[in-house]
Design a protein that fits this description.
By secondary structure, the protein is mostly helical. Helix content is about 75%, strand content about 0%.
């Protein structure tokens, strides 16, 4: 065995595929653009308007595209995902460059419009990428591929927002805009080079009505027993975790007696845990299977939240790191199962449907907890969340071994 062959053998099995390596390089630039831009936009709006409400509207504009996810998933299943991603990234690069015309609060609408478009691209990318990974990798390589991409994703989330914010403070928003547009442009170029034999979309003559096809992803999740169960588990677990997201500031200020700015420290430790979780996720799935791995990840999130009812900052920091470790285990295991049990022609719609089912309950939970936090002790909210996430962990664990199911 040559030295080069030895190095390749030590890498994740998905890395042995040239097409996956090419997709990963494109993913690097996409993540750099994503992570550098989203935080800067809210800061920029705050500086332009001195309004917390106006800055919060950036997050609203970023969240609203979730309603369009089924339509975007359907689009991803109707054409070449490789070409779709290339053109989409080129289009958002040009859209981001339009932010160079923003010079006052009077053009705030342009920031919101670009943010909305950027959110749509995120859902379209997730749907298209799911199909590409399914076409590039065999069933037993999916966890490895998802683990690699998750590690990159979490690593950039840890570093890029700091880079984007530092660049914004030192040079101005124009520098971040140009950097982001250049990264999206590089992604578009690299996507054209990905070597993949794509699954052809279904013959239009064989399809049902548009609305029936649009809902096919939801029907597939519901009709596939193990996949349907885990989708419900994630919706319940992440929905419950939304309560803690709303209680994080009372935890810091009332429980720990620290300033709200300490949130940056907590986010950094969660990011470190998430990088480790992404790097170890494929081995966890290989050893325990997808469903048990989701249960283990949920258990880690449960354990990580327990210190939040106490008063020790050190314990909370460790707990946040444990939560960060568990989340990639959950997401990689679930994504691998969904890709494995979903036909290639349905990958985009199934991914979009899963995003809607999982993300909407969490958003509603954040809204409900934000309304309750003023009159309810935050510790009761955290304790209720711990119980609900623990229940989700139990639900994820199969009572008896399940026969493997493959996509038709």
């Amino acid at each position: 065995m040559t030295e080069a062959e030895g190095r390749l053998r030590r890498r994740p099995v998905a890395w042995r595929h040239r097409g996956f390596r090419q997709l990963t390089r494109a993913w690097v630039f996409t993540n750099l653009a994503d992570s550098a831009l989203y935080l800067m936009l809210a800061v920029w709006v705050k500086d332009l308007t001195d309004s917390d409400s106006a800055a919060a509207m950036v997050l609203v504009a970023l969240g609203v595209p979730a309603l369009a996810a089924p339509f975007l998933g359907h689009l991803a299943d109707q054409m070449s995902r490789k070409r779709l991603l290339a053109f989409t990234n080129l289009g958002i690069a040009l859209a981001v460059l339009s932010l160079l015309f923003v010079d006052s609060a009077s053009r705030l609408w342009l920031i919101y419009l670009v943010t909305f478009s950027y959110g749509c691209v995120g859902y379209l990318t997730a749907s298209s990428q799911s199909g590409l990974i399914r076409d590039l990798l065999a069933d037993d390589e999916l966890a490895s591929g998802n683990g690699v991409l998750s590690t990159l994703d979490q690593g950039f989330r840890l570093v890029s927002p700091l880079v984007g914010t530092a660049l914004y403070v030192a040079v101005g928003p124009e520098a971040v805009v140009v950097l982001t547009a250049a990264c999206f442009g590089a992604t578009a170029m690299l996507m054209t080079r990905v070597e993949v034999d794509e699954t052809l979309p279904a013959d239009p003559g064989d399809q049902a009505s548009y609305w029936a096809e649009l809902a096919a992803g939801f029907r597939h999740l519901a009709r596939t027993p193990t996949l349907g169960t885990l989708t419900v588990v994630l919706a319940a677990g992440f929905g419950a975790a939304g309560f803690v997201n709303a209680a994080v500031f009372p935890v810091m200020e009332q429980g720990l007696g620290v300033d709200a700015a300490t949130l940056g420290l907590l986010v950094s430790f969660q990011g470190l845990g998430a990088v480790i979780g992404g790097a170890t996720s494929s081995r966890l799935v290989a050893r325990f299977g997808e469903r048990r791995s989701v249960g283990i990840g949920m258990a880690m999130v449960t354990i990580g939240m327990i210190p939040m009812v106490g008063t020790s900052l050190a314990a909370v920091v460790v707990g946040i790191g444990v939560i960060g470790l568990g989340i990639p285990w959950i997401l990689v295991a679930y994504s691998t199962l969904r890709q494995r049990l979903t036909p290639s022609r349905l990958q985009g719609r199934a991914a979009a449907a899963a995003n809607v089912v999982i993300n909407v309950p969490q958003t509603l939970a954040i809204v409900a907890a934000a309304a309750a936090i003023g009159w309810l002790d935050y510790r009761l909210i955290v304790l209720a969340t711990i119980v609900l996430v623990a229940a989700a962990a139990v639900m994820a664990h199969p009572l008896r071994p399940e026969a493997p199911t493959v996509a038709s």
